[in-house]
Amino acid sequence: MTAPPAIELSSIAKSFGAVRAVRGVSLRIESGTIAGIIGENGAGKSTLMSILFGLYHADGGEIHIGGVPVRMESPHDAIAHGIGMVHQHFMLIDSFTVLENLVLGVEGGFLLSDGMARTRAEVERLSGEYGLSVNLDARVSDLSVGEQQRVEILKVLLRGARILILDEPSAVLTPQETDRLFLVLAALRERGVTVILITHKLREIMAATDRVFVMRQGELVAERRTAETDPHELAELMVGRKVRLQIDKTPTHAGSVMLRAEHLRLVDGRGVPLLDDVDLELRAGEIVAIAGVAGNGQTELLQVLAGMRAPTSGSLTICERTFDAHRPGDPAGRRAIGLAHVPEDRLRQGLVAPFQAAETSILGYQDEPRFNPRYFLDRPAIARHCRDLMERFDVRPRLPRLRSSQFSGGNQQKLVLAREMAQEPRVLLVGQPTRGVDIGAIEFIHRELVKARDRGCAVLVVSVELDEVLSLADRVLVMFGGKIVGEVEPAGTDERRLGLMMAGASE
Amino acid sequence: MDDLAAIVFLTAAATLRTATPLILCAMGGLFSEKSGIVDVGLEGKMLMAAFFGASAAALTGSAWWGVAAAIGAAEIMALLHGFACITYRGNQVVSGVALNILAAGLTVVLGNAWFHQGGQTPPLEQAGSRMLPIFFPHAGDNILVYAALASVPFTWWLIARTRFGLRLRAVGEMPLAVDAAGVSVSWLRYRAVLLCGFFAGLAGAYLSIAQNAGFSRDMTAGQGFIALAAIIFGKWQPFPAFGACLIFGLLDAVAIRLQGVRVPGVGEVPVQFIQALPYLLTMFLLAGFIGRAVAPKAIGVPYEKEH
């Protein structure tokens, strides 16, 4: 007789209003395996897992854990059934120590001291067993993202979880940290823990899982043994059509320098350098990508280049205009000289969420006579302009009057990109071009960026996605601790070397 | 020499007397604020407690009944605040201000209706209807003063050393983490708000049946706000907040001593100026001196559970 599966879901369904997020999904995950769930944004994978973890109530269907039917009313029930979840956004309290975070919810008695001592001993055992070392007395705010994730995993294990759900665990990790995470997961599997990995990164599915489940539009469209599939097949299953994972592009013919930064420094209010002596050159007709783990100065660099923030010292030449600490310029001035910027934080800087798509499509250009002939906005002209952009960039649905927030992430990004690229800029800055964007749209956005380059635009891309950086760029600069620590040719670069540079290890 | 000792003793006693309601209020407010619920309504809670405390003491002739009524009144105010802010996720500042206005009006209206003395309660003259000094007859060291002193280490211990305290701190920083750990955010916050009501009730009782012998309209005179300032000044930590209360208390005590004193070169210091000192100091300290106060991260933000 075989053991019952760790998890069995039958006909799980969940709707949010008119949106059917999960449509009758049934799946079995065997105990002691690593299962991957992939799908585009909005495919329903996170919703499905939230139902399993008791965060959402399913409209219909059954959940069996270890062969026993269960009802998940809240995360409390899920924890009681041995399910633990590591969320994409960590649920750690920054101002608490690691130990305080771990002990929260499983304190034992009324006095903390006993629970603390017990937890400390328990953690020491667990960290030895699974290679999850972490300093218990450090404050969470002082930990690296990889360490914070280890704390999250420890938290789940301490609560006795035998089933571990990880939601996009590698989104914020360096390749080395990701490798280390996979070692931990393998050690967990050795000891009979069942792991579910939610991700959209095909490479990780291939590297870490035993089985993979593919979701599309709320349905489970395929189940494969990882050993018997390949990334191309999975990508096709996810999108529902053939997808090119590689970008076709011709070698670059870089022209004259369009943007030059010299000794750029930016120091924050507490005296911490955010940008440290950054030198940078960007030529017409090339794509330069800046790689790095989030939070190493890329955001600030973009802000300074785009005129949103003044540098503390150093100078900046954009399209033959010079800016420095005394004359930093502003975003409107940058636009006037032919620089366009697609900000990293789309929702807060790229668009105004409650605005109509048509309004979003002219943000920053609203004073141009064609939109604003005299005193009032020419709404029909703006709607025509928006519709035109939507056609050219395949933004769906094609409704200029729909609120910006009601478009999916990928369509929002395409709209912002369309707005900026329609100006035919000479310099284009793009922050995280495909963050929260699904595979189909990624392909499209990449092609458009290459087209802009071929027209002679100088393109600077900041991205934390290594695959993207390597496939899109003609040159790759690596940032660490506010400095540019190296430049590599994307062709033939080995990811490990890049990863080490991103982690600040000198060569 | 004896003179100096006497002055020091009397000033210290006066400081403690004026600081007592501040300390009790600040410790109460600390629980609420640590849990993420802003409490602008400390003033109103204290005022309501002072009124009901004095009324009950006058009617029953027992100071203890007065204290019980004061706590009861403050707890009802606390529950109203909790209901608006926790259950209905309303704006915490608006709710607090509303409670202050309610207290200012209701105490006077009820006072007039019940006692016909222009909003005051009858003076507490019967034996046993007031809290009296225990050891030093002239220092006013009644039991509530000692309660205030004890409340500081108690608050520290509860917040720093117990399960409840850990969860309380967590819920003020990141309620989502508490919810994910399977602990009820609402129940934690209700308990915090109720603790706040308890201490604000003691503070109100102190004003009307210990420090004074009866309630008079608006007798809290902004002390709830001063306590709130002390919490911020003390960076949401019990002992530093206690220190801030003592500073404010000392200023008040000195202000009383300075009345009518001629300062060389300046002449007589206007009473109004001295009385304004605690408030000026609050502004001055908050504006620049203490640097950035680190409030609990989730303070003032209602917790919305996803469904």
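qc> Chain A touches chain B through 29 residues (CB under 8 Å).
qc> done
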